[in-house]
Amino acid sequence: MNHFFTPLLGILLIKKGPQDLPFSISLMKLSLIVYFLTGLPGLMISIEFGQAVLAMALDVVVLLLFVYACLQAFSKSERFVQSVTGLASIGIVFQLIVLPLLYNFNSDPEAAEQMLSISILLLMFVSWNLAVYAHVFRESFGVRLPAAMLLTICYIVITLMARKIFFPELA
């Protein structure tokens, strides 16, 4: 397990890339399943369980298709397993970190001071998440940082557009 968590920590600290993760299709599948499961509670704040399941399934499909298309475009298809494992694992970590903040954010809308603190924390975690995604895209696709940042924005926009099309109540 140390062969997985040490590189994952390195990725989260922007010191390592997904190529440092073990190449394992079972690990990729496990990461996607856990990513799917850890995303459900955060979505269930806003929507019902059935819709949350479908929304997370959509997230997984968008992740897989986006990574596959980009790797094909950059002729790096051999990096698919480790890239998906890395992105799903990052998603797991950030979903778990943000989950308590989301519940607190929705628990007491009257506490303005608490909402400001939670909003700032959420902004910090979202910024860190985007930086890590850009880093993984840079490492996976072999592009420079500005292109990786643009790809990160494209990925987020595509994910949000897909959610808005299929689940307008999440927008």
Could you give a quick summary of the protein structure above?
79% of the residues lie in helices and 0% in strands. The protein has 171 residues and is mainly α.
How would you describe the shape?
Answer: globular
As a whole number of angstroms, the C-alpha radius of gyration is 16 Å
By helix and strand content, what is the structural category? mainly alpha
Number of strands: 0
Quaternary structure classification: single chain
Alpha plus pi helix count: 6
Number of domains: 1
Mind summarizing the main beta sheet? none
Beta-strand percent range: under 5%
The percent of residues in helical segments reads over 70%
Overall mean pLDDT stands at 92
The H/E string reads: HHHHHH
Amino-to-carboxy terminus distance = 37 Å
Low-confidence stretches: none
Task: Give the topology, please.
Elements: H1 2-12, H2 25-43, H3 49-73, H4 80-107, H5 112-141, H6 145-166
Helix pairs in contact: 2-3, 2-4, 3-4, 3-6, 4-5, 5-6
Describe it for me?
The protein is mainly alpha-helical. It has one domain. The protein is built from six helices and no strands. Helix 2 packs across helix 3 (49-73), helix 3 (49-73) packs antiparallel against helix 6 (145-166) and helix 4 packs antiparallel against helix 5. The longest helix has 30 residues, at 112-141.
Key features of this structure:
mainly alpha; 171 residues; 6 helices; single chain
